[in-house]
Design goal:
It is a single chain. The chain is an alpha/beta fold. It has 2 domains: 31-145 and 309-338, Rossmann fold, CATH 3.40.50; 149-307, Glycosyl transferase family 10, C-terminal domain (Rossmann fold, 3-Layer(aba) Sandwich). The protein contains 11 helices and 13 strands. Helix 5 (208-216) packs across helix 6 (235-243). The longest helix has 27 residues, at 2-28. It is an enzyme of class 2 (transferase).
Length: 340
């Protein structure tokens, strides 16, 4: 009996391998303009920060309802791939490299991917004239993948009522650098209002399942980005503040940038105040009037936040955008684009 099962098992593995191979082969067929819609093959050259995800089955279809989009991390699919995606962190540290030794079809697109702000994208010059498309949180990237976005329809989130919250404001920070703007604002602001600090810096790390409940107990959350760069709005706003139902006090790109992507009346921007004392006074005033405070949470009835945090979902988005991506493009000066 055991033998029998073992044989069945092996046959199944063999069959699935064969199916996969023939699936790949089918897709090698050149794009027929009027033929059946073929799949786009996307090769992830290496996984971001060395954390791999399962690609078994048609993940884009099954998880995100995106059809004809095949993700693979199998390097042997290189010659068949329509798009090869390179995550910058590993390239810049020499943990992975671009396959210059392999023959690259002229119709194959290489994507430079990074969701980090410019300050974290080091060692760029060696990658000039290699990539056709960029993938970043920036709106002007070829494939723009924000950390989160605002959608219509109220959310079903529930938080402690304002009078029941025992914490005025909190901040989670792992990499504190005194020279960063946010550090200066925090140091000054904490003289005027109580701020509970969590994270690696303060040696009070919050495990994932404690993060939102902890922040939910606060009226305000400091969504302070580590750098104030074009379009850079991270999960510090989308997840930490919005999903926890704390009113975000934001430091990052311009107020107009935030307004363009967030729900109405949903944040307080540091740049609106001439001093941290003024900001603190405003926060105290808001907290003192329950109706004024709750106006900042009204949007939860009409809007909801979608968060992107699975790399597969981001990668599947390439297929959605593929038909409208520039057909001929090369980034000759990647560094200047990144730092722009
Ligand atoms: C999946 O996508 C198709 C077309 O792209 C759409 O017609 C269908 O409603 C979607 N299904 C779900 C469950 O969203
Ligand atoms: C940049 O590349 C050089 C070698 O090419 C390497 O020594 C250095 O560590 C890299 N920088 C970072 C921050 O990884
Ligand atoms: C505040 O907390 C108390 C005790 O946990 C609870 O009974 C009450 O319903 C809460 N008030 C509001 C307005 O949610
Ligand atoms: C993609 O970039 C490569 C390398 O710079 C270039 O040779 C190729 O022509 C580009 N492909 C397209 C379709 O623009």
């Amino acid at each position: 009996m055991a033998y029998f099962l073992l044989i069945i098992f092996h046959v199944l593995i063999l069959l699935s391998l064969l199916c996969y191979k023939s699936f790949l082969n089918q897709n090698v067929v050149k794009n027929h303009p009027d033929g059946p819609h073929r799949s786009i093959i996307i090769l992830v050259w290496h996984w971001p920060f060395s954390r791999s995800y399962s690609l078994v089955g048609d993940k884009c279809l099954k998880m995100y309802n995106i059809s004809h989009c095949l993700l693979t991390d199998d390097k042997s699919a290189f010659s068949a791939a329509d798009v090869v995606v390179f995550h910058h962190y590993e390239l810049s540290r020499g943990l992975s490299s671009v396959p210059l030794h392999l023959h690259r079809r002229t119709s194959q697109y290489w994507v430079w991917m990074s969701l980090e702000p410019p300050v974290n994208n080091v060692n760029l010059t060696q990658f000039n004239s290699l990539f056709n498309w960029t993938m970043s949180y920036r709106h002007d990237a070829d494939i723009s993948i924000p950390y989160g976005k605002t959608m219509l329809g109220g959310d079903k989130l529930s938080f402690p009522a304002a009078p029941n919250r025992s914490c005025f404001a909190s901040w989670v920070v792992s990499r504190y650098r005194p020279e960063q703007t946010r550090a200066g604002v925090y140091q000054s602001l904490k003289n005027h209002i109580p701020i509970e600090v969590y994270g690696k810096w303060n040696k009070k790390p919050l495990p994932d399942k404690k993060l939102l409940p902890t922040i939910s107990n606060c009226l305000f959350y400091l969504s302070f980005e580590n750098s104030e760069k074009k379009d850079y709005i991270s999960e510090k706003l989308w997840r930490n503040a919005f999903q926890a139902g704390a009113v975000p006090v934001v430091l990052g790109p311009s107020k107009a940038t935030y307004e363009a992507v967030t729900p109405p009346h949903s944040f307080i921007h540091v740049a609106d105040f001439s001093s941290t004392a003024d900001l603190a006074t405003y926060l105290k005033d808001v907290s003192a009037d329950r109706l004024v405070y709750e106006e900042y949470l009204q949007w939860h009835n009409t809007h909801q936040i979608k968060i992107y945090n699975d790399w597969r979902e981001r990668l599947c988005q390439i297929c959605v955008k593929y038909p409208s991506l520039p057909a001929k493009k090369v980034y000759h000066n990647l560094e200047s684009w990144v730092n722009n």
